[in-house]
User: Fold this.
Amino acid sequence: MAADNPQAGQGRPLPKKESDLFKGVVKHYEVKQYKKAIKQADSILKKFPNHGETLAMKGLTLNCMSKREEAHALVKKGLMNDMRSHVCWHVYGLLHRSDRNYNEAIKAYKQALKIDPENLQILRDLSLLQVQMRDIKGFGVTRHTLLALKSNAKMNWISFALAKHLDGDLRGAVNVIDIYLGTLTEDSPELERGFESSELAMYRNSLLAEIPDNYEEALEHLDTCEKLVVDRHGLLMSRAKYQLKLGRFQDARETFMTIFKRGASEDYSVHSGYMCSLLEMDDAICEEALNLDGTGTLATMMPLSAEQKQKLKDVYIGGELSEELPRSHAMQRIQLTLREGDDLKNALDIYCKKLLKKGAPSLGTDLSSLFLVDNNGRYERVTDPVDVKAHPNYAMIVQLADGYISSLSSCSKFAADDNDTEEDPSTLLWTWYLRAVLHELGGELSEGLELIEKCLEHTPTAVDLYELKARLLKASGDIKSAVECLDKGRELDKQDRYINNQTTKYMLQAGMEETALERISLFTKHEGNPEQNLFDMQCSWYELELAACLAKKEDWGRSLKKFAAVVKHFDDFHEDQFDFHSYCVRKVTLRAYIAVLRYEDTLWGQQYYGQAAEGIINVYLHLHDNPTITKEEEEPDYSSMTAAQRKKAKAIQRKKKKAAEKKAAEEAEKQKAKEEAAEKENGGKKKQNNKGSQAVVDPDPLGKELLQKDPLEEAKKYSAMLSKYAPNSINTWLLQYDVSIRRGKALMALQALFKAKALAGNVPNSEVFSRIVDFATKADTLKGDNPVVQEVVESELAALLNGGSISDFVTSAVDHVKKNPLSDLSYRVAIAKAIVSTKTSGVADAASIVIDGGINGRGVTASCCHEALVTLKKFGNEADEAVTKWSETVKTKFPLMVETK
Amino acid sequence: MVKQLEIEFGAITADNVEQLRKVNAACFPVSYNDGFYKDVVARKDEGLNKFAYVNGFVVGAVCTRVEDMPSAGSSSVKSGGGDEGEVRSRLYIMTLGVLAAYRGRGIGSKMIASILEYYEQHKDDELSTVDEITLHVQTSNTDAMKFYTSRFGFVKGEMVENYYRRIDPPHCYILSKKLR
Assistant:
């Protein structure tokens, strides 16, 4: 940062002595010796108290010493004193940047550049902000300026190529890289094989592949750069992919084989690619198969013809691949997905025995990946107990397990005529465990619990058993017992973080947030406030569970607070990319960098953010619907009372206030005592290492500020985020509907309903159904005066109701359920509600939709059964008989269910 | 011949002592108080107190302590007028248990053997005062008596009447084996 400013003014130009001092300030600031910088700045200011640049630099330095307000005041004062100094503007920009106020920062930098257009430092800083803000055009311009100013720097070339790439000019980006490579002399170390040259080559290659229909060139380029590339796996994967895309299936198959031989036998995406090359699948399917998650392959993605399956079997079972990869576990699992009938049963027999001997608690879950059904040409895994039990593979595995159990219990062998030696006692344990998991998957909770008791008697020291038992108890509707069971399991091994977290989660679901914090605190840092530590560690799952727990307890402020913490984490994740803009270019990790940028662009579509936003929206909508909740804290309206009433009301208020104050004081006391105890524990070290934790004092731990916000406005804000970033989630549109309908936005509500309906597909969805009914009942009041809106609402509503009246719509849903006895319980409940609310029919008919067969269909969980009961009770006296009948039915299915009010 | 099980030994610590409770609760008719478990953890001697693991899970445990030898007859523990004035001691097996499903597979033997082996390794240093190894066995528990006498050469000693409070029979024998 040069300090020569020829413009006249107070103390400028600085005399030699002060000018040297100023250089010292900048130097010390840059090496983070802040105290020294301040000292030198002060000695300049002694002589020239209004020297703008010095004031600004001092402010900037103070900002790094966490004195934000003082810093702002000084920097502003500096700038006011010297508006024509690029240093002042630059510093002003840096200050905004540290506040994450990027748009302001960009403005300040641009101002600085007006004064000093060729300042490299400012240009670089500006470019970072531009890419962070995705001002891609501006980024391109700035990077071009930088390249023109300093064309011998590799970083400038690469950054300019990236700018072209982000702008969609792929060929241009390739050209920039080529020109850069052309500037190098032949013996340049940049052209030798090494990480940087390899990454640059692979980045160039990825650009070529991104150009539409350009796989040929990309493939050729791989050959030319092969010698440079150190990421052998990446190169081979790209080659195989291009070969697939170009339809050179034999070549692709050989390349995949090479990849297997290098040790990628457990990588399911390689298997997928290999299968595609073998079956010569078309482009779209190849793309889909290569992008499958986890252990999915082409064979589990979609139904294949008998001929196709045979082709795969020829190589996977006793063919080239099974010879090449005899010890691969992935191979064995894939083989299972290719077999059927008795052939499958025999293979499963071998597979299960092997894992049961080994003691693999995950076997049941592993096998549940075989419960696939065809849904419009794609396989889908069934999870509802009704469907699981109907699946032939389920029956097959149950039969095998039952056979093992009877044989193992009588003679400790898998089969009585087995000549092998006896199995270890643990084999029977894990077979019981497998059977218990199968009971769980089939919704046979009591049977599962019975079996897990046997397991616990057999080996009461195995933690996994407690976890399964707790899961079964929870599904049975007894979360308290589930917590007790898990906590006992946790005590067996206090170093097991997984079981500790699981216990914490269950406790939160059981409404025991204080004990839950105690449990998870066993694994947080042992100094400072554990809750703050969990926040610093960005422990979102905990915060989401806690927020949900607090919402259930109607502690709205604290619940919002925790949901907001997760939102903050996402802001931080987004912020975190800032460092990568310069780092990745310097390290030439360009492919990964582009992947990060693309990930960040979809960041708010992540599941955890969705959960947090949904939580916030629901709380705010509840506050909107019940405005008295937030009014409660304010003083009541005394004017409308009589003197006596007023006196009484005031006394109550005073008492309330006192109690609240007392509670707050107690909390503070407790916290203080805790901190003191923690400090004692740490002995003399307390002063060091906890700069951070000391600085953080939450001024609003109860979230009162959040409660004061306009609830509908807040809900709208988050709903808009979801619509933008998670448009493929049905929840997004359900929430959008809930918000829009309250805002009186008929068209937005309609749009949300159509989107939700489209996402639900042909499966009846209770949430969509009840919102269509809701909209239909409110349509008249929503239409408003605008004739255009009226027309649209009318015609679109007709489309939603399939052309009939609301009653017709509800009746057709009733018919659907009657024709489909396995219909989802929540759908039945929604229909019952609609029958009553739209007066389509009487309470008796409504109740019968639930109680006649509802227990045998899909979606029968303890909580949904409870929900159904609550609904029936709301129907009033007429439904008394139905309530009794349903209660009994539920009792038989969930004998352990604990009644909640 | 029933297949022997491969076992591994592991330490009993504050973090996993609950597993010892589970093993003991499953194996013995008497329950041990919290003091017992605290002592085992506090002692931190992996050689004498340990879990037996099969396939990664605890299936048995042995807890042993070194205690002063009660001197014959007199109340004094010290061998009063002796030349050295040294206190002699013995190894006392407090508990040895294997979960029912895993019995008869050599796990108990391996645990006793490992205690004896530990003695052999340390008889000249930390266990230099130890002369014998002993334990109490309920008079009705003939299986256990056979296990210790025939396999490890323990000798059945005197019967202690009303040793146990809440179980029947309440009497026990002292089994012991001279180590030097």
Remarks:
- The interface with chain A takes residues 2-3, 5, 14-16, 18-19, 22-23, 25-26, 54-59, 99, 101-102, 105 of chain B (CB under 8 Å).
